From TrEMBL:
PROSITE patterns found in the cross-reference section: RWD
Pfam families: RWD
Organism: Zea mays
Compositional bias segments (type: Acidic residues): 183-206
SUPFAM superfamilies: UBC-like (SSF54495)
Region (Disordered): 174-220
Protein name as annotated: Ubiquitin-conjugating enzyme family protein
Amino acid sequence: MADYEQEQDMEVEALQAILMDDIKEIDPSESGIATTARCFQILLSPQDDDFDESAYVPVQLALIFAHTEKYPDEPPLLNVKSVRGIKPHDLASLKEKLEQEAKENLGMAMVYTLVSSAKEWLSEIYGQNGGDEEPEETEAELALQRAKLMPDSALTSSKEKKLTGRQYFESGRHAVKGASTVADEDEEEEEDIEFDDDFEDDEEDMLEHYLAQQSENSAA
């Protein structure tokens, strides 16, 4: 019993030396944990350690823990609260994650390990711009979107470069129409109509000529 208490006290002292103002002892009634043991609250944010402390932090998390009688051979009692900007379903996911990790680290002082894990989770989920109404998409999501868009872009580019003969010819017709319009805007509609009629006549003449040649070749 005495060994457990000593180990727990040493862990608290180490955490206070490392976390400084970010850790404080709170009343058990404020912890959200059903215990009368000493409770501690650690404030976490997604910023790096060298982040300007005077700057406003839009997202902040409180990790609360209490040692059980046989900790670290038993997992600590844990709770997580949103100080600012953390969604309830995210808190539930984080608590479940930390409780699982606590079970995997039995037999050793683990609170700082859980703190590091919680901070990493906070950075991944919310990042520097956490707390926005619409959180930024992750790098993986952006990369996936780019991958989906690239084939369409490439296909569009390919189609633009490889025009059929008729498309190429018709693009020439539009160019001729454009030049005619610039030369004489007053006669635009009339010239376009006449051009289209002439073109259709030319197509018919060419077709008739081709069929006639084919007929002669067959007869020969």
